[in-house]
Amino acid sequence: MTAVEDRATAEAPEREVGKARRRKEDARLITGRTTWTDNTVLPGMLHLAVVRSPVAHAKISSIDVSAAQEAPGVIAVLTGRDVADEQGSIPCAWPVTPDMVNPGHPSIAVDEVNHVGEAVAVIVARSKAAAQDAVELVDVDYDLLPAVLDMEEAVAEGAQLTHDHLESNRSFHFVFESGDAGTGQHTDEAFRDAEVVVSRRFVQQRLIPAFMEPRSVVVQPQGDNYTMWSSTQVPHILRIMLAMVTGVPEHKLRVVAPDVGGGFGGKLQVTPEEVISLLVARRLGKPVKWTETRSESLMTAHHGRDQIQYIDIAADREGNVKGLRCRILADMGAYLRLVSPGVPVLGAFMFNGIYKFPAYRFECDGIFTNKTPTDAYRGAGRPEATFAIERIMDELAVELGMDPLELRRRNWIRAEEFPFTSVAGMTYDSGDYETATQKALELLGYDELRAEQRRRRESNDPVQLGIGVSTFTEMCGLAPSRVLGSLSYGAGGWEHASIRMLPTGKVEVVSGATPHGQGHETAWSQLVADRLGVPFEDIEVLHGDTSISPRGLDTYGSRSLVVGGAAVVNAAEKVVAKARRVAAHLLEASEDDLDFSGGKFSVRGTPGAEVSIQEIALATFAAHNFPEGVEPSIDADATFDPENFSFPHGTHLCAMEVDTETGMVKIRKYACVDDVGTIVNPLIVEGQIHGGLAQGIAQALFEEAVYDADGNLTTGTFVDYLVPSAADLPHFDTGNTVHEAPGNPIGAKGVGEAGTIASTPAVVNAALDAVRHLGVRDIRMPLTPERVWRAIHGGGDGGDRATAGTNAYGGAQTETTAGVSTPQSALGGDR
Amino acid sequence: MIPAAFEYARPTSIDEALQAIADGGDDVKVLAGGQSLIPVMRLRLAAPETVVDLGRVAELRGVRDDGDAIVIGAMTTHHDVMTDPLVQQHAPLIAEATETVADRQVRARGTFGGALVHADPAGDLPAVALALDAEFVIAGLQGRRTVPAADFFVDYLTTAVEEGELLVEVRVPKLAGEWGMRYEKFNRVAQAWSIVAVAAVVRREDGHIAEARIGLTNMGTTPLRATAAEAALAGAEATPEAIAAAARSAAEGTSPSSDLNAQADYREHLAQVLTRRAVTAAAGL
C-alpha cells in the first residue's frame, strides 16, 4: 500500500491554486508594449480636443466657434446645440428611490454649465496638436450663476440651486430602518432607553481615483457598424448604455477594452467623451480618437467619497451596543452618473460593521453641488461606512473608559455564530474575528508598542505614539441579481465564462470579467489548469471585447474571482463532463468507471487504459470516431449568479508617531490580517492588499480634492493632489486567516477593496490615540501636518485648508488659480 | 499637454547661446534641465517665442576647484552635484539639500543653475546658496559680472539675471574653521516641494557659536536669511537652550504665503522649529 500511495503522490500534478505565480500579463503591461487605447492608430484617424467650462455654474449666452473652425487642420467644431437632438443623457442605472430626481446629463453642455471642466464644445482636427491649438480659439460667453459647493448649506432653507430648474438640491432620500425591515428593533426606541449615546460628525473628503492610464477612446465606423476601443472597466455595460443613449443599435456596436491601466472604479462609467466620440465618428464617418490629459483627468473623470456623516451610537454602561443611527449627506456633484446614487446606498448595509446591533437606522440624502460628479471609487460606499463605525466605536470606548479592542470583542459576531444575519439584513457567510485579531496583535508587537506609548507619555516626548484599530468586514462579490433588483439597480450581477478546447490541446478561456490590472489572466489560468489538468502555460484568457466575450458584467466591487472565476470553474466542470462521454467512447468503457485526474481519464482497474483531455480535444476536432448522437464539441460555457454576497473581514492595526511640534504624522508600523477566503494566488492577494492599503492610507493622510470658493479644483495636478509613493508608505506586515466562502465553488471572498476599506479608520484612530491625552478628539482627513498641529495646539478638528493657494506650476497663475481669491478663500492665492 | 509652437535654438557654446538669446525675439526662454519650463509650456502657462536649449553647451557642466572656492557649472545636473567629491568635501549642505529635490528622474535631468535661476522660493537650492554666501557669475554679450547671493534673488521667480544674460556658474567659497551644516526640509510626500525648509551653516569656537548663517526656504517671495536668529546666535553658547531661544526669532521679517499645505502662521511656527533643529544639528549637538 505504501508503494501505491507514493506513486500517487509522485504523479499528482502540482496544484496551481495557492501557488504564488508571477503574473503572465505583467511584462507587456509594465513595458507598455501593448494595446493601450492611446497606442491605437487607424488610417485617416481624426483627433478630438474638448473645450471645457472654466466656471462652475453659468448660463451659456453665446459660443463663437468661427475662429476655431478656420484654424489649420480643423475639420469641425461641435457645440452642445449641434448635438442636442442626438446626445441624449449620460445614463444613471441606479435609481435608488422611486422619486429620485435626475436632472439629466448632456455630454456637451447646451444651455448651462454646472461644474468646472464640463464639456462645452469639441474640436475635430487632423492632428492632436491642431485640435489642442484650436481649443483656445473658441469664445464662450457665460452668464455667471452662484455656485453651490457646500452640502450643509445646500440643504438649508433658501439655499442657492445647483440646477435652477429643480426645486431643491436634493436628489433622493433613502432610508433603512431595522424596525421596519424586520431585521431588528425600532432605532428610536433603542436610543430612548440607552444609558450612553455618543454622537459625532465625520467628514469623508472628496477623492480622485487617479488611475495611472488616462482615459482614451477610439471609434471606427464601418458602414453602419461602429467599433469603440475605450480605456474602460466595463465594455459590456458601456455597449448597452451607448446603444440606449445614442440609438446606435446594440448589434451594430462592438466595444473593446484593450489592456487598461487601472481604474479603481474611476473607469466604471459611461463618460461624456465616449458618447461624444461615437457621435462625431457617426457624423463624419471617420475614425476618431480622444485621449485626455492628466489635468483633464483629475478635473473631469468622476470623483469619489465626499460624505458628511452624522453618527449616533447607543450603548449601556457595560459596553453592549444598543443602536446605531447614521444620517448621511452624500455629494453627487452636478449630475448623476452611472451608479452615483448607489454608492452611498451600498454603504447602508455596512455601517453596522461586524457588531451585533439590536437596532439600526440609515438615512441618506443625495445632494447636488456644482462640482464634478461622484461615483464608484475603490470600496464604493463601504470605506465610508467602515470609517464611520470604526471611528465611532473608538469614541464610544473613550466615553466608556474601555479598551477599544475590548469594546469591539464584546460586541462582534463570534466565530460559532456564522452564518449570521446582521441588523441590516445581510447574511455574513463565514469568519473568525477573534483569531484574525490575535494574529494581527502578534504581527504588530502590540504589547511592546503600548509600553513604548506609556514611556513617551510619561516623559512628555515631543513625538507621541498611538495605536489604531479597525476590525472590518465588507460585502463583496457583486452581486446576487435578485438583490440588485430589490435595490432597483438596472442590471443583474451574474458573470459569464466559456472555455474553448483547441485541437492542439491548448485552451482558450473567455471571461466576461474584464481586467484592468488585477491579473485575471494569471488567476483564471491557475483555476483552469487545476480543473482540466492542462499546463498553466497552455491556457490563454480572452476578455474585454464584446465580440470575443459576448456576455459579461465586467470588473468592480471585488467581484471578478468570486463571480467571474466561479463561472470559469463551472465552465471547466462542464468541459470535463462533456469530455468524459468522449473518453468513455474512446476507451470503450462506461463513464461511471472513469477517473479524471491530472488531465487524464483512466479506466478504474485497467492500468494503461487512459486518454488525456488534449487527446480528446483533437479527437473532437476530427470527429472521426465520436459517440453516436453527441455533437462534436467539448467546449462549454457557464453563467454564475451568486446567491449571496461574500464577506471578507480582517483586523488592521496601525502604530503612528505624531510629532507634536510640527504636526507631522508618520506610520511606525502597520499590521493586518485579512480573511479573503481561499487564496488562488498569494502574490496577487498580497499585491491587492498592499495597493489597497496605499489608497486607504492615502485617504487618511494625503489625498483630498479641494475646491475653492468659486468651484475651481485647486488640487488640479499631482503637485497638490498628493498620491503617495512607496517612499511615503511604511512596510506592511500582512497575514491571512482562511475561512472559505460557502457561496462559490472556489471559496474565495474577494480582495480588491479590503485594504482600502479597512485601513483608513485604523490610521486616523492611531493618530488620535497618540494625541487624545492632549485634548484632541477628532482631526479631519487628510491629516495634514498643519491640521494635526492646529488640533493639538488650537483645539477643534484642524480646520479648513487654504483653498486658493497651490504649489503647482512654480506658482504660475492658471485658469484654476487666477483671480479666485474671494473673502472665503482669502487665505491663499497670493503666490 | 502639447505646447504652443515656438522657435528652437540649440547652441554649443556660451557665446552662441548669448547670440541665440539676442536673436530670439521678445520672449526667449532658456531651457536648462526643463523640469520647470517644460511642464508650464505643456500646460500653455508659458508660450515663449523662442526656446534656447543649453543641453549641448558642454562648458557649462561640471564642478572645479578654484583655490578658495569651488565652482559649479550652471548646467551640472542635480545628480552630478550630489555625487561630486568637491561638493561633498567643501559644501556638503548642497549635496544634502540636492538629495531632497523631487525624485531620481528629476535629479537626473534638472540642473543646479536652472533651479537657482528659476528662483522658486519653495525650491531647495536658493536658500542653500544664500546660506553659503555663494556668488553668481552672469554672462552677457558685453562680458561677465559676479553677483553675491544676497543680491541675486530679487523677487518672486526673479533674479539679477537680466534679459539677454545667462547664469554660467556659481562660486561657493570654501569655509575655514570648524563648520557644521544641516538642511532641515519639511514636506508631506517625498517628491514634494518644501512647505518650509531651513539651511543652517554654523561655525563653532570654544563651546560657542561663533557664526551662524541661516537660509529659509518658502518663507517669502524670495529665499531669506533669518537675520534676527543669526544675530541672536552669534557668540551664544552652543547649548540646546540658547539655540532654542535664538530660533524663536527665525520668522522675524518673513512674509510667508498661505496655500493648501500651510497657512502663514503655521509656516512661521515651522520656521522656528526647523531652525532650532537645523542649528542644533549643524552645531553638532
UniProtKB/TrEMBL annotation, chain A:
GO terms for molecular function: iron ion binding; oxidoreductase activity. SMART domains: Ald_Xan_dh_C. Keywords: Molybdenum, Oxidoreductase. Its cofactor is Mo-molybdopterin cytosine dinucleotide. InterPro entries: Ald_Oxase/Xan_DH_a/b (IPR000674), Ald_Oxase/Xan_DH_a/b_sf (IPR036856), Ald_Oxase/xanthine_DH-like (IPR016208), AldOxase/xan_DH_MoCoBD1 (IPR008274), AldOxase/xan_DH_MoCoBD2 (IPR046867), AldOxase/xan_DH_Mopterin-bd_sf (IPR037165). Residues 31-146 form the Aldehyde oxidase/xanthine dehydrogenase a/b hammerhead domain. Pfam families: Ald_Xan_dh_C, MoCoBD_1, MoCoBD_2. Residues 1-24, 792-831 are annotated as: Disordered. Residues 813-825 have a biased composition (Polar residues). It comes from the Bacteria. This is Xanthine dehydrogenase, molybdenum binding subunit apoprotein. It comes from Geodermatophilus siccatus.
TrEMBL record, chain B:
One of its GO terms (molecular function) is oxidoreductase activity. InterPro entries: CO_DH_flav_C, CO_DH_flav_C_dom_sf, Diverse_Substr_Oxidored, FAD-bd_PCMH, FAD-bd_PCMH-like_sf, FAD-bd_PCMH_sub1, FAD-bd_PCMH_sub2, Mopterin_DH_FAD-bd. Residues 1-177 form the FAD-binding PCMH-type domain. Keywords: FAD, Flavoprotein, Oxidoreductase. It comes from the Bacteria. This is Carbon-monoxide dehydrogenase medium subunit. It comes from Geodermatophilus siccatus.
